[in-house]
Amino acid sequence: MNTPQPARTRAQTHAPKARPDARPMRLALSAGGLAAMSALAAAIVLPPRPATQASGAVRQPAASADPLANPTAAQVQHPIQYVQLSPGQTAPPGATVIAASAPTPITLTVTVPAPAAQTPVVIKTTASGKVIP
Amino acid sequence: MIFAPSADRHTSTRVRSRRPSDELTLIEPVSLAATSMGGRLVVHVEAQGRAEEARRDCRRVIARIDRWAARLTRYTDSSDLVVLNSDPGSAVPVRPILAAAFRAGIAAADASEGFADITLLDARLAAEGKPDVAAASRRGEWEIVRGPRGAAVVRRPPGLRFDFGGVGKGWIADRALDLLAAWPGALIDADGDLAVRCAPGKFWEVGIDDPRAPESSIAVLRLGTPYGGVPTRWGVATSGTSIHRWNVGGAASHHLIDPRTGRPAVTDVVQATVVAGSALRAESLAKAAIIAGSVDGFALLERARVRGAVLVTSNGEVRALPVTMSLLGN
């Protein structure tokens, strides 16, 4: 049964304004947050990209062009600047030896006297004096 | 090369194939040289790893030798010897160093049967043609009377003058060697006259100067002490007419005065090297061998029981007493 609705009066226009529906925005924010979290997670978990391709210092042997074919040959050779010698080891020829206790790198020049031939001490008995002119 | 005189007893001894010094060790000394007594003075010490201490002792010995020599020289007006020679008196007190040197002069004369004579200054100056010496006639007996604390009084004919010469060098070398008694081995080289001490198991090498070829040796002596022995003292001296010589009136002359004539010796020996128990004795006998000549000189050296002797004669021969062979290192 339909009863006639009373006509709306102006008084109704002063009623508190209805609040907008928050659900669409919440859905949108949730979806954006999920997308951001997913992007961050993907960035953290992914393996590092081979930066060697961009470095001029990397040298790969020509024979190991395919690292998958020869995994052991995939070596990166870094220029060796300093080597700490163990007791008993000797520096390679041409290397500069730096004392471990030296505060700053210095070049130590050690002069080892050659085993000079023993100068024989010549002791002679002679007639003394000088020729008188 | 050593040649023994032919057809006499000096050729009878054979050279031993094994010398006592074969297993001994050559001494490598710490040495210090200086100019002293008108020549080269070198002090050698067997340092045994204490080189700095040895050098310090060498310097002390050289300083002491200089003080002794300053009192005995005839080339400085202030020396004790010149003061004595200038004194007109017949009895002159002398201080201990000069008194000890006079006693050494007596010992030298005794060892050399009178050939080493410290009273020949005027004879020598006359031989050199010095205008202030009229003649070599002021010789005579002299004596030394002991006084307190090493001093003495020299009694002599008025005007008699003295000159120690090589006798003084030998005496100083022996005395200086005593100062190094703390060291196992030492050698004093007083311008060619050597006082030597050698520890057991060690030896010194001493070259004999060749008067015909400067800078070369006619022989090398090995003066050593066997293992287990007591330290041995040696004296080595060389005297000769080839170095200390001059011309007077166009004739060659030299400084070795024959006390029998008061003039330079007429001899067939150019150089004599003697090895004995002390430098004083070796020096006296080397001088005697030259003055006496090779024949009488060898006889004198045998009577004196020297440990070795090498003579160079005017005809170029080099002769050695047989006992010398045990000392030769080459």
Structural classification of chain B: alpha+beta
Largest sheet of chain A: none
Q: Please tell me what the overall shape of chain A is.
A: rod-shaped
Shape, principal axes of CA atoms of chain B: globular
Return Rg of chain B in Å. Answer: 20 Å
Low-confidence stretches of chain A: 50-68
Q: What share of the residues of chain B does DSSP label as strand, in percent?
A: 25-35%
Mean pLDDT of chain B: 87
Q: Provide the β-strand percentage band of chain A.
A: under 5%
Number of helices of chain A: 1
Explain how this protein is built.
The complex is a heterodimer of chains A (133) and B (330). By secondary structure, chain A is mostly helical. Chain A contains 1 helix and 1 strand, in the order H-E. In chain A, 17% of the residues lie in helices and 2% in strands. The radius of gyration of chain A is 46 Å and the shape is rod-shaped. The N and C termini of chain A lie far apart (171 Å). Chain B has helices spanning 51-72, 80-86, 96-111, 121-127, 165-179, 279-292, 294-303; strands at 25-26, 30-36, 39-45, 91-94, 143-146, 152-155, 186-190, 193-198, 202-209, 217-224, 232-240, 245-248, 251-254, 257-258, 263-264, 269-276, 308-313, 318-320. Chain B is an alpha+beta fold. Chain B is globular and about 55 Å long. In chain B, 28% of the residues lie in helices and 28% in strands. The A-B interface holds A 118, 121-133 and B 28-29, 31, 38-39, 42, 44, 128, 166, 169, 187, 189, 191-194, 204-209, 211, 217, 236-246, 255, 271, 273. Strand 1 of chain A pairs parallel with strand 9 of chain B, so a sheet runs across the interface.
